[in-house]
Specification:
FAD, 23 helices, binds ligand LFVS4E46, peroxisome, flavoprotein, Acyl-coenzyme A oxidase, binds flavin-adenine dinucleotide, FAD binding
Length: 639
C-alpha cells in the first residue's frame, strides 16, 4: 500500500476524543494552541532541518547549531514572540545549544540570587542577548578550587558565567557563593586576561549532545568586582565585612530546584516521543502468527510487546501530570520565599531532587526499551531513537547524579520520621507519615483482581510500602553510634526507600489528576486505565518490596498481575490515539518509524539511498585497500 494513512484503521478504533486528550496533555487549551502553532512553524522551515546531524563532523555540527540559534533568535524578534512562544520555539528546534543554559540557568540564577539592583543591571542585557551566560558549578576534580569542567555553553560561546566558588574574607571561609564573571571580550570574543577557557571534547553519540560546547575554565588572579557577587542571600560590604540576610543558606542552590523541576517536565516529552515512535511502528510491523490465512499479526498485539510498551506509555502520562504538579509546587515555594516563608523549601528540594532522579532514570531506560521494541530498525539513526537516547541519557547525571539526589531525599525522609516523636505533623507529600502506626500494621484489602482498580487500595499499598521501608531504615540507623557512618553503611537501603517514596508521589498525583473535571468523551476513562497500568506495573516490578514488607500477600501480587494483563487489553485499541494526543509533528519526532502516516518501509528504503556512502557505487578506499587485497587473493589462489 503506497501513500495514504497506513494507521487509519488504528485511529478508527479509538474509544475517546483525541482532540480533547491533546488539551489534557498540553495542560490547557492555550498551551495546546501555542505548542501546535510553534511546532508547525519550526517543522515548515527548512532552516531547522535536523536529519543530517549524524553525518556532520563536530565543527560542522557546532557551526550549524550556531546558525540555527542565531536564526531562531531572528525569528523570535521578527515575529515578536512572547517568552512562552520563544521557549517553545527553542524546544521544537530540538538541538541542545548554549541558549539552553543562557535561558535555563544563567538568567534564573541571577533572578533567584541577585539583588534588585543586580537584576536591573544584568537581566536586560541577558534578555536582549547582548551578553550570553552559562552556569559554572561543577569541577574537574573534587573541591571548589580546581578547574570548572562541564558547564554547557562555556566552551566556545558564553561571554559571562555565574561561577560558584568559595568566598574567603579576612582569611575566613564562608562557603560556596555565586559570582557573575565576564569571561570573554564583547568586541573580539577573546578570553579576558587570566582566563583559560575551551571545549572539553567529544561526547557520547554522533551528533547528539555534541552540538553543545561543554567547557573547561581556569582563573589565574582574576579580580571579580564586589558588586558581581550575587548578594540576595549574603553580602560583602565595601569595607569587606561579610553578612547574611535572614534567609536559609540553601537558597544559593535555588537554581537547581528550578531546573530539576523543568527536567521532570522534559522527561515526559522525551519518553512520550520514544513511545510514540515505538507504538506507531509496533502497529505497522507485522510478524508471523495469523490464523486462518488472514493478515499477519501486528507486533503490537503480542502480549510481550504490550507488557513492555504500555507501561512506558502510562509512564509518559504519569510524568506529564507529576511535572505539572511539580511546577505548581515550585511556583508555590517561590511565592512563599518572597513572603519570607521558608517552611516548604526542604520538601520542594526533596521532591525536585527525587522526581528528577526517578523520571530521568525511567526515561533513559524507556528510550532504550523503545529502541529494542522496534527491532533492528530501531538501531538505524533514521529511527530517531539512537540520537534521542544519546541526548537524553546524561540527564541521569547532570543537575545532580541520580543516586546522590536520592540520598538527599532519604535524608529528608529520615528527618521527617525523627520529628514525629516531637509531635511535628508532616504535611504535603510526607503527610502519610503522620499515619505511620496504621501503615505499619494495615492489611491490603484485595480479594479479586478488580479490587486493584480502587484508588484507595492502590494508595494504601504504596503508602504502607514507603512508610515501612523508611521506618526500617530509621530503626537500623539508630543502631549506629555515629549517624554519618550509619547513613553511609545503609545507603543502599536508603536509596530504595527514597525510590518507594517518589513512586508514591507519582502514583498519588496521577490519582489526584483523575479527581479533577476532565472534559471530552472517554478521556477520563482512558487516563484511568493508564493510571492503573502505571501503578500496577510498578507494584509488579517491585513486588519484592511489597511482599517483604508484608504490605501484600503472594496471592494479591498474582491478582495485580492478572489485572494488569486485562488493562493492557483495554489500552490496546486506544494505543495509537493515545500517542497521537502528544501532537508531535514528524519534524519533532525525527523518525521514519514513528511518522504519522505509518508509511515506514518506502521511507526507510528511500532514506538509505540518501546516505553519503551511497553517493557512488564504488566507495572511496576501494582502489586503495580492497582491490589490491582481492588481487593478492587471486594470485594466491592461482599458485
Ligand atoms: C530551558 C531549560 C534549560 C535547561 C534545563 C533543562 C534541561 C537540562 C539540560 C541540560 C543540562 C544542563 C545543565 C546542567 C547543569 C548542571 O549540572 S549544574 C551542576 C549541578 N550540580 C549538582 O546538582 C550537584 C549535586 N549535588 C548537590 O546538589 C549538593 O547538595 C550541593 C548543592 C553540591 C551541596 O552539597 P553539600 O555537601 O555542601 O551539602 P548537602 O549535604 O548536599 O546539603 C546541605 C543541606 O542543604 C540542603 N540542600 C541541598 N541542595 C539544596 C537545594 N538545591 N535546595 C534546597 N536545599 C538544598 C540539603 O537537603 C541539606 O539540608 P539539611 O540536611 O537540612 O542540612
Ligand atoms: C551533559 C552534561 C552537561 C552538564 N552541564 C553542566 C553545567 O552546565 N554546569 C555545571 O556546573 N555542571 C554541568 N554538568 C556536570 C554535572 O552536574 C555533574 O556531572 C553531576 O553533578 C555529577 O557530578 P560528578 O560528575 O562529579 O559525578 P561524581 O560525583 O564523580 O559521581 C561518580 C559516581 O560516584 C557516585 N557518588 C558520588 N558522590 C556520592 C555519594 N555522596 N554517595 C554515594 N555515591 C556517590 C555517583 O553516584 C556516581 O556513580 C554537566 C554534566 C553533563 C554530563
Amino acid at each position: 500500500m503506497e501513500g495514504g494513512d497506513h494507521l487509519a484503521h488504528e485511529r478508527k478504533k479509538a474509544q475517546f476524543d483525541v482532540e480533547a486528550m491533546k488539551i489534557v496533555w498540553a495542560g490547557s487549551r492555550h498551551a495546546f494552541e501555542v505548542s501546535d502553532r510553534i511546532s508547525k512553524l519550526v517543522a515548515s522551515d527548512p532552516a531547522f532541518r535536523k536529519d543530517n546531524r549524524p553525518m556532520l563532523s563536530r565543527k560542522e555540527l557546532f557551526k550549524n547549531t550556531l546558525r540555527k540559534a542565531a536564526y531562531a533568535w531572528k525569528r523570535i524578534i521578527e515575529l515578536r514572540l512572547s517568552e512562552e512562544e520563544a521557549s517553545k520555539l527553542r524546544f521544537y528546534v530540538d538541538e541542545p545549544a548554549f541558549t539552553d543554559l543562557h535561558w535555563g540557568m544563567f538568567l534564573p540564577a541571577i533572578k533567584g540570587q541577585g539583588t534588585e539592583e543586580q537584576q536591573q543591571k544584568w537581566l536586560p542585557l541577558a534578555y536582549k542577548m547582548q551578553i550570553i551566560g552559562c552556569y559554572a558549578q561543577t569541577e574537574l576534580g573534587h573541591g571548589s578550587n580546581s578547574s570548572k569542567w562541564w558547564p554547557g555553553g562555556l566552551g566556545k560561546i558564553s561571554t559571562h558565567a555565574v561561577v560558584y566558588a568559595r568566598l574567603i574574607t579576612d582569611g575566613q571561609d564562608h562557603g560556596v557563593h555565586g559570582f557573575i564573571v565576564q569571561l570573554r571580550s564583547l568586541d573580539d570574543h577573546s578570553p579576558l586576561p587570566g582566563i583559560t577557557v575551551g571545549d572539553i571534547g567529544m561526547k557520547f553519540g554522533n551528533g547528539a549532545y555534541n552540538t553543545m560546547d561543554n567547557g573547561v575554565l581556569r582563573f589565574d588572579h582574576v579580580r571579580i568586582p564586589r558588586d558581581q557577587m550575587l548578594m540576595k542571600v549574603s553580602q560583602v560590604s565595601r569595607e569587606g565585612k561579610y553578612s547574611q540576610s535572614n534567609v536559609p543558606r540553601q537558597l544559593v542552590y535555588g537554581t537547581m530546584v528550578f531546573v530539576r523541576q523543568t527536567i521532570v517536565a522534559d522527561a515526559s516529552c522525551a519518553l512520550s516521543r520514544a513511545v510514540c515512535i515505538a507504538t506507531r511502528y509496533s502497529a505497522v510491523r507485522r510478524q508471523f502468527g495469523s490464523q486462518n490465512g488472514g493478515p499477519e499479526t501486528q507486533v503490537i498485539d503480542y502480549k510481550t510487546q504490550q507488557s513492555r510498551l504500555f507501561p512506558l506509555l502510562a509512564s509518559a502520562y504519569a510524568f506529564r501530570f507529576v511535572g505539572e504538579w511539580l511546577k505548581w509546587l515550585y511556583t508555590d515555594v517561590t511565592q512563599r520565599l518572597q513572603a519570607n516563608d521558608f517552611s516548604t523549601l526542604p520538601e520542594a528540594h526533596a521532591c525536585t531532587a527525587g522526581l528528577k532522579s526517578l523520571t530521568t532514570a525511567a526515561t533513559a531506560d524507556g528510550i532504550e526499551e523503545c529502541r529494542k521494541l522496534c527491532g533492528g530498525h530501531g538501531y538505524l539513526c533514521s529511527s530517531g531513537l539512537p540520537e534521542l537516547f544519546a541526548v537524553y541519557v546524561p540527564a541521569c547525571t547532570y543537575e545532580g547524579d541520580n543516586t546522590v539526589l536520592l540520598l538527599q531525599v532519604a535524608r529528608f525522609l529520615v528527618k521527617t520520621l525523627s520529628q514525629l516523636g516531637s509531635g511535628k505533623q508532616p504535611v504535603g507529600t510526607t503527610a502519610y507519615m503522620g499515619q505511620v502506626e496504621h501503615l505499619m500494621q494495615c492489611h491490603c484489602n484485595v480479594q479479586k483482581a478488580e479490587d486493584w482498580l480502587k484508588p484507595a487500595v492502590i494508595l494504601e499499598a504504596f503508602e504502607a510500602r514507603s512508610a515501612r521501608m523508611s521506618v526500617a531504615c530509621a530503626k537500623n540507623l539508630s543502631k549506629f553510634t555515629n549517624p554519618e557512618e550509619g547513613f553511609a553503611e545503609l545507603s543502599g537501603d536508603l536509596v530504595e526507600a527514597a525510590i518507594a517514596h517518589c513512586q508514591l508521589i507519582i502514583v498519588s498525583k496521577f490519582i489526584e489528576k483523575l479527581q479533577q473535571d476532565i472534559p471530552g468523551k472517554g478521556v477520563k476513562q482512558q487516563l484511568g486505565v493508564l493510571c492503573n497500568i502505571y501503578a500496577l506495573f510498578l507494584l509488579h516490578k517491585h513486588q519484592g518490596d511489597f511482599l517483604s514488607t508484608g504490605c501484600i500477600t503472594p496471592k494479591q501480587a498474582y491478582l495485580a498481575n492478572e489485572q494488569l494483563r486485562a488493562l493492557y487489553s483495554q489500552a490496546r485499541p486506544n494505543a495509537i490515539a493515545l500517542v497521537d494526543a502528544f501532537n508531535y509533528t514528524d519534524h519533532y519526532l525525527g523518525s521514519i518509524l514513528g511518522c504519522y502516516d505509518g508509511n515506514v518501509y518506502p521511507k526507510l528504503y528511500e532514506a538509505a539511498w540518501k546516505d553519503p556512502l551511497n553517493d557512488s557505487v564504488v566507495p572511496d578506499g576501494y582502489r586503495e585497500y580492497i582491490w589490491p587485497m582481492l588481487k593478492q587473493q587471486l594470485r594466491t589462489a592461482r599458485l
